[in-house]
Amino acid sequence: MKLEVLQRGYTYHIYNRGINSTPIFVSDENKNYFLQLLSKYVAPHCSVFAYCLMDNHFHLLIRVDDPAEKVTQSFSNFFNAYAKAFNKATNRTGSLFEKHFKRIAIHNEEYLKQLIVYIHLNPKHHYNIDFERYKYTSYKACLSSKPTILKRDEVLNYFGDRDNFIFVHQQRNLDLHEKFLLE
């Protein structure tokens, strides 16, 4: 699979998982550190719209705001810093992530909105747990007034307002709930 080249001004779904689907997060401390590194390395060069951290994978939705070379290097620094810290903390060696992080360019607003909801509902999709209570998605940060790396106002504006943002998530959550009941 040829990797999409990151381009300034474009929005991307960035995701990856642990090599051989192994966990990349084994504690809340790991997830908090990953978010700290995201803030340090990526947020200064990209607009962050959504994230979700699961035990063996993650999803990010970002817009590239700086030159592509700078952003590519910031992602490299981000993932390398996290992998080194994780390996040291868990007494392991070798690659943590699959070879390259995946990236898909988002070319229309409707798909972008669907992707935000998909990312936030990932805990429901993979573990059938309440996405509204799951700590490691950007859903709560979108609804909070606390400082965040997210472009919260921009995200909410895609949905019209805060109430519609909640409504769309709840509707999609009901769809997933029905899917689980049928399986």
Task: Describe, in plain words, how this protein is organized in 3D.
The structure is a single chain. This protein has helices at 28-42, 68-90, 109-120, 122-127, 139-143, 152-158, 162-182; strands at residues 11-17, 46-53, 57-64, 102-106. By secondary structure, the chain is α+β, with helices and mostly antiparallel strands. The chain has one domain (11-182): 2-Layer Sandwich (Alpha-Beta Plaits), CATH 3.30.70.1290. Strands 2-3-1-4 form a four-stranded antiparallel β-sheet. Helix 1 (28-42) runs antiparallel to helix 2. The radius of gyration is 16 Å and the shape is globular. The chain starts with 10 loop residues before the first strand and ends with a helix. Residues 179-183 have low confidence and may be disordered.
Task: Give keywords.
alpha+beta; four-stranded antiparallel sheet; single chain; 183 residues; 7 helices; 49% helix; disordered C terminus; Alpha-Beta Plaits
Give a quick rundown of the structure.
Helices cover 49% and strands 15% of the residues. It is α+β, with helices and mostly antiparallel strands. The protein has one domain: Transposase IS200-like (Alpha-Beta Plaits, 2-Layer Sandwich).
What is the helix tally?
7
Provide the CATH topology.
Alpha-Beta Plaits
Distance between the termini: 32 Å
Shape: globular
* Overall strand count: 4
Strand order of the largest sheet: 2-3-1-4
Low-confidence stretches: 179-183
Question: Main β-sheet, in a few words?
Answer: 4 strands, antiparallel
CATH superfamily, please? Answer: Transposase IS200-like
Query: Whole-number radius of gyration?
Result: 16 Å
Question: Could you tell me the strand content as a percent range?
Answer: 15-25%
Portion of residues in helices? Answer: 40-55%
Name the structural class: alpha+beta
Please give the CATH class. Alpha Beta
Averaged pLDDT: 91
CATH architecture: 2-Layer Sandwich
**Number of domains as seen in the coordinates:** 1
